[in-house]
Specification:
Rossmann fold, single chain, 6-stranded parallel beta sheet, 4 domains, binds zinc ion, 17 strands, Arc Repressor Mutant, subunit A, binds adenosine-5'-diphosphate, alpha/beta, 592 residues
Length: 592
């Protein structure tokens, strides 16, 4: 049976081999055994239920929480030549009716529905008349109140399955793996002695790094300039920050779009589509964006602020590199981020135990931002509880740290003594003004122009001084306290610098180098044209990894093209010749 599954996967999806875990999960399903599969984002869960649907005789129902996700998956299946549909509240009545009729005729191998649909009489009648062989529950953690997106309708699934003509095999899929959630899934979905598969959480193709005390805005701009045309997401903590950053980037010639809960539904959808369809390469968003976004060719995820815990971070960062091609995940840490997260916990309505747990998780996140050790190991230890991991992964920001260090002890001493003189009662702006020697009204009014530290850093710009303050706060030489307008005080490491002259070193990052690849760019262009013609997002036509392989292997005929991972028979027939022509043209022009 597994062999048949492998053949189907190659034929329809063009993947020559299963990824880690997929074979076992699929085998269990084909043997008629329920399964709970916990796999990180991007590991390839969809294949685990789509491939069995091609082997089973009856139809496969997929319960999925998000309308956008359903449409995306159905589009992708369509281009691969697999008959599938979705039924949800976004459809017009006539369209819904048409799909229900076709479903009743047995036209589809897969039908996607939202859980609320299980309460709908018409649909229930249809489902009971169908031969449902397999019920796949995507984002299965939604059944648990412990999860971050509890959906009461998920609790109806068990009863629904029991009421079908024959009880189908049930497969539950999620990326969230805490013990409580796993227990809840098995219990509430009434899985029958399920196989529980928990895959490794490592995402080998992702490069993680943390930067502390950077001028974040400038860093982001530099990064985007070096990575033009690459698609990526920048997460910021608040709506205000998203708007500010997006406007600033646009003003600096970067094409980007934005997304947050404060925008109208219409604007959000337009913005999301512009990103998914590769009309705009960069998305600036709050964490409201991304759930159910399947875009596989996201090349980087930058965090402009530190998220509230490692779970959120790994989920958001994990949206990079779903296609298996390299993805870069950079977290820009600032001391203010910690204040912001603490503020949010304080403002929450959580009960005391929950609040304590949120604080603990926040501390782990802060520890991640400061560890000098391997970041991948840190993440995997946290999620897998595995102590036997190699000390170094060799491919994270800490394992490959080649940045140079500069000695900023003297500047640091000047900043620290100024903060000391201001008695920890003022914010970074005032400290910077005094050090710069700005005798403005406020400074004069308080008599700070007479301080011995006034103008001590007059050779620096105010922004440079603020960056330095930020860096010192990040490293614990200074401390920020207070809510909306934090004040700067001396931190726990200040005394050693002021009294014992301890050295303060600041890393200087190297500028990112731009990547140039003419054929890859032309292939992307062609993919975009075809996607426009077919009305689907470009990554559904071919993944970046597939285009990358084409640009490296330069196939000259259909047989060679079919060998490339991601090229299945239907796609070969539909798009193969156009891509071959372009590759031939390019190969012919090379060296001329
Ligand atoms: P998940 O749902 O676990 O986040 P997806 O199902 O979206 O992950 O899969 C992530 C990407 O990996 C998709 O682009 C998918 O087509 C690709 N993929 C899945 N399985 C394989 C495989 N066996 N070989 C190559 N690519 C695969
Ligand atoms: Zn490492």
């Amino acid at each position: 049976m597994l062999e048949k599954a492998g053949e189907m996967m190659l034929k329809y999806f063009g993947y020559p081999s299963f990824r880690q875990g997929q074979a076992g999960v699929i085998e269990s399903i084909l043997n008629g055994r329920d399964i709970l599969a916990v796999m990180p984002t991007g590991a390839g869960k969809s294949v685990c239920y789509q491939v069995p649907s091609l082997v089973f005789n009856g139809v496969t129902l997929v319960i999925s929480p998000l309308i956008a996700l359903m449409k995306d998956q159905v589009d992708a299946l369509g281009t691969a030549g697999i008959p599938a549909t979705f039924i949800n509240s976004a459809l017009r009545v006539s369209e819904e009716k048409r799909r229900l009729e076709r479903a009743a005729r047995g036209d589809y191998r897969l039908i996607y529905v939202a859980p609320e649909r299980l309460e709908n009489e018409t649909f229930l009648r249809l489902a009971q008349s169908l031969d449902v062989a397999f019920l796949a529950v995507d984002e299965a953690h939604c059944v648990s109140q412990w999860g971050h997106d509890f959906r009461p309708s998920y609790r109806r699934i068990a009863q629904f399955a029991a009421g079908l003509a024959r009880r189908p095999v049930i497969g539950a899929f999620t990326a969230t793996a805490t013990e409580e959630i796993k227990k809840d899934i098995v219990h509430f979905l009434a899985l029958r002695s399920p196989t529980v598969y928990v895959s490794g959480f490592d995402r080998e193709n992702l490069f993680f790094s943390v930067l502390r005390g950077e001028n974040k805005k400038e860093y982001v701009l530099d990064y985007l300039q070096a990575n033009r045309h690459q698609s990526g997401i920048i997460y910021a903590a608040t709506r205000k920050e998203v708007d500010m950053l997006a406007q600033w980037l646009e003003a600096n010639g970067i094409s980007c779009t934005s997304y947050h809960a404060g925008m109208t539904e219409k604007k959000r959808t337009a913005s999301q589509e512009a990103f998914i369809y590769d009309d705009v390469p960069v998305m600036v968003a709050t964490n409201a964006f991304g759930m159910g976004i399947d875009k596989s060719n996201v090349r980087f995820v930058l965090h402009y602020n530190m998220p509230k815990n490692l779970e959120s971070y790994y989920q958001e960062a994990g949206r990079a590199g779903r296609d298996g091609e390299p993805g870069e995940c950079i977290l820009l840490f600032g001391a203010q981020d910690v204040l912001m997260q603490k503020f949010l916990i304080e403002q929450s309505v959580y009960a005391p135990e929950r609040r304590a747990s949120e604080y603990r998780k926040l501390q782990t996140m802060v520890d991640y931002c400061h560890t000098p050790r391997c970041l991948r190991r840190f993440i995997l230890q946290y999620f897998e509880g595995n102590e036997d991991l190699p000390q170094r992964c060799g491919s994270c920001g800490n394992c490959c740290d080649d940045s140079e260090e500069t000695d900023v002890t003297v500047e640091a001493q000047k900043v620290l003594s100024c903060v000391y003189r201001l008695k920890g009662r003022f914010g970074a702006g005032m400290v910077a003004d005094v050090l710069k020697g700005n005798a403005n009204k406020k400074v004069r009014g308080l008599g700070f122009n007479k301080l011995s530290t006034f103008g001590l850093l007059s050779d620096y710009t105010v922004q440079e001084i603020k960056d330095l303050i930020n860096f010192l706060a990040t490293e614990g030489y200074l401390a920020l306290t207070g809510g909306k307008y934090p004040v700067v005080r001396l931190g726990s490491r200040a005394a050693a610098v002021l009294r014992q002259g301890e050295q303060v070193l600041k890393k200087r990052r190297k500028k990112a180098a731009a990547r140039d690849d003419a054929l890859f760019e032309s292939l992307r262009q062609l993919r975009k044209e075809i996607a426009g013609r077919e009305g689907v997002p470009p990554y559904i036509i071919f993944a970046d990894s597939t285009l990358r392989a084409m640009s490296e292997l330069l196939p000259v005929n259909r047989a060679q093209l079919l060998k490339i991972s991601g090229v299945g028979e239907v796609k070969l027939a539909k798009y193969g010749d156009e891509f071959l022509q372009l590759i031939q043209y390019y190969a012919g022009n090379r060296g001329k």
